[in-house]
Each structure stands twice: as C-alpha cells, then as structure tokens.
Design brief:
Elements: H1 3-20, E1 29-33, H2 39-47, E2 52-55, H3 58-71, E3 76-79, H4 88-94, E4 97-101, H5 104-117, E5 122-127, H6 140-152, E6 160-163, H7 172-185, E7 189-191, H8 198-203, E8 208-211, H9 213-216
Parallel strand pairs: 1-2, 1-8, 2-3, 3-4, 4-5, 5-6, 6-7
Bound molecules: pyridoxal-5'-phosphate.
C-alpha cells in the first residue's frame, strides 16, 4: 500500500467514526506521525494532501522539517514526545503545537522561550491517565490545578490535554478520563488515539488523533 492509499483509508475510518459518534465531518484533526520515517515519506504524504505532522523527538524533527516547512509554509508540526527543558528553545522555534507539557520546569522554560522568540506554539498538557511510574505526564488528580498554574503562574494558555494509555489496557476508559479532565479544565483539544485505537478515541471525544504506522508502515527503530 502506498502512503497515499494508507492515508485514504485512515481518513475514511476517521470519517466513519465521526459519523458514528454524531460529530461533524472534519471535527477530528489527523496528525500523521512521521518519526523514524525519512523526509521523502513526509513529502509523499504532503503530495496526498496531508499537512499536519507529529514527531516525538526535537532532534529528529530538526533534521527533516525546516526544509519541508520552507517549501510548504502551511505544514503544521506537533511535538508529541517528552520535552527536556534544555530543548525548549529549539522546540519553540520549530513546533506549532507541543503536546507534552507536564511539569512546572517545562512550563517555565517554554514561557521564557516564547517571550524571547515572540513565537507562540499551542500547548497541551500530557496526562498520565494510567499513573504509570515510568511514563511522562501529570497525574489525573493534579491536572486541573496544573492547567490553572500554567495560566496564572507561568502566563501560558493551555489549549488541551494529551494521553497515551498503558499498553495492554482497554483504552476507552483512559480516553473518557481525558475527555472529562479537559471538560473540567476548560480546554478544547483532546489529543488521543494512535493507529490501534483512534476509532475508539474519536468515539470518546478526540479532537486530534496521532497516527503513525497505519500511514507510514512498520517502524524499524534499529535502522533509525
Ligand atoms: C509513535 C507515537 C504515535 C503513533 O503511533 P502508531 O501506533 O504508529 O500510530 C502516537 N503518539 C505518540 C506519543 C507516539 O510516540
């Protein structure tokens, strides 16, 4: 299957899930996750009409996307992986949306860089819905307070929440929890759902789905 064909299939599934959930067509944004895949694959997706991309490493994105963005200024790039504060400068310069704000140190570093660069990517707070010790994200019970603190202490507008459910758990309850926390925090974006569960996520209110392998194929980390 070509990237263009795979994109067509994913778009059809999204449309079906929107309809099933009684949501308007086009209410879900597809983020094509291009991590580990070469710039040529990104350009093939653009040729097929895909302009929103996700990468999980600042460094890797910095090798692929400056030239892509120079050629296609409407490309929107999302950082979906963990962010270290020493990468805040590069992240603010390169990304249009950052999904992984999860502690005060990162919020402070982003606020400082955004002021310095006068560039304002949209920000999402990552929530560790499964409360997994090894996983990034803020605990569910701290989420509403943290969103408030981002605004009141750090001067940051938070646009939404993001989660990655634990491997092996049924994802729907995690998606429902994220949707509920977003409602309580008063934020619009719900970034949830990957290749294996984006249909389920749309049923639970996802506004952004992050789909990689269903578009670009199997990821060979060994070669990356
Ligand atoms: C890699 C990744 C995805 C995409 O995963 P697929 O299973 O290939 O669709 C989505 N979200 C995050 C945070 C990722 O790191």
């Amino acid at each position: 299957m070509t990237i263009s064909e795979a994109l067509g299939r994913v778009r059809a599934v999204i449309e079906g899930a929107e309809e099933e959930a009684g949501r308007p067509t086009g209410s879900v944004t597809l983020i094509a996750v291009s991590k580990t895949f070469p710039e040529a694959d990104v350009r093939a997706a653009i040729a097929a009409g895909q302009f929103v991309f996700g990468e999980n490493r600042v460094q890797e994105a910095a090798t692929k996307f400056p030239s892509v963005k120079a050629d296609f200024p409407s490309v929107e790039l999302h950082l979906i992986g963990p962010l270290q504060s020493n990468k805040a400068r590069e992240a603010v310069a390169l990304f249009d949306v950052i999904h992984s704000v999860d502690r005060d140190k990162i919020a402070a570093a982003l606020a400082k860089e955004m002021r310095t660069q006068n560039r304002f990517p949209k920000l999402l707070v990552q929530v560790n819905t499964g409360e997994e010790p090894q996983k990034a994200g803020i605990a569910p019970r701290e989420t509403v307070d943290f969103v408030k603190r981002c605004r009141d202490v750090h001067g940051l507008a938070i646009t939404g929440l993001m989660c990655i459910p634990p491997v092996g758990d049924p994802p729907a309850p995690h998606f429902a929890l994220l949707d509920e926390l977003a409602r309580r925090a008063g934020v619009a974006f719900r970034s949830m759902g990957m290749s294996s569960d984006y249909e389920t996520a749309i049923g639970q209110g996802a506004t952004h789905v992050r789909v990689g392998s269903a578009i670009f194929g199997f990821r060979d980390y060994g070669a990356a």
